[in-house]
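For the sake of transparency, this paper describes our internal protein records without simplification. The remainder of this section carries one protein's record, kept here as part of the documentation:
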Amino acid sequence: MSVSTSIPVLPSVLILTPELTPRSRSQPRSAPLSAVRYRSRQTLKSGVSPLGLPIRKPLPAADPLLRLQASITARDDRLLGWLYDHGVLTTDQIAAALFPSLDFAQRRLRRLTVLRAVDRFRPNRAYGGSYPYHYVLDQLGYDHVHAQRGLGRPRRDQARRRKQALTSQPDLPHLLGGNQVFIDLAAHARTHPDSRLVRWQPASAYHEPGVLYREGGNPQIIIGGATGFPRPDGAGVWTEQGRSVPFFLEYDTGLERLDILTEKIAKYERLYAMSTWAWPVLFHLPAARREANLHHRLAAVPGLETVVATTTAELHTATGASPADQVWQLAGRTGRHRLIDLPYTDTDDDDDDDDDEFPTHTTPSPHGRAA
């Protein structure tokens, strides 16, 4: 015999508890909840908890620039100054000039990227793959350098504009190649305490008329403007064992005709004929054959007064020598010479601490020129 059991079905009744009852707009809040909120507000205002313990108020968010400046080292300052003046440097260049190892450099660069001091990009190779990271200043990096140099606040979009100009620059390899010569000198100085790269001036420092004029020279240097006189790819002062040599750099990628190079030398000849000083002009060429052809043309120039010294990327690759070593061949002479031994004429004559005769580099424009 089966026993059927059935569960009685109760009518659906919705029971609303006080906690679940919807509160109308006119209904006041419950007294206990209002009292809790009131006591919480009073506690925050007084800074003391109901137990009598002090309450720490949350600190305001730190200013990003102050946070960056609190983390900056002397080496970071030098790097940010280089990027401000010279636009772009690769990871390998930064590591060689400033750090004991590539891994150390990469860790520090990641930290500076997080702090928004620098930004980076990687151009693609035409035959596949990509180049190393290329570092440029980010906006906070510009803010920091301007504060360090006593300049006004930079434009809010200065980092974006200059990064766009550099990434779309067709002669980016030329800019990096010219920077590489100075980076090699800085790397040499890092491991040789008796040597130092005293000054590194960018090409943009020589774009304005009159920057090559010195007291005692011909005023036509100012009136003539910048087009009739040389516009080097950079300038510097190298010091070694208490001796110094100033120089101009012309970096050649091999894409220009040799006529263009000889025309540049003619502009230096014109400048030195109207001046009281004459620095050696360093031509960094891609190959030995181009170097030989240039010297052959210079031998046909009558009465060449400019000190022209050449070296090649091939020689650097084969020997691993730095620009400070015995790699410079003087026009009209045999053999190669060290950078510190190159002759020059200067009224200041080896004064390491007197940098007043150098053009002052100020704010670069988005296209890398001095403003």
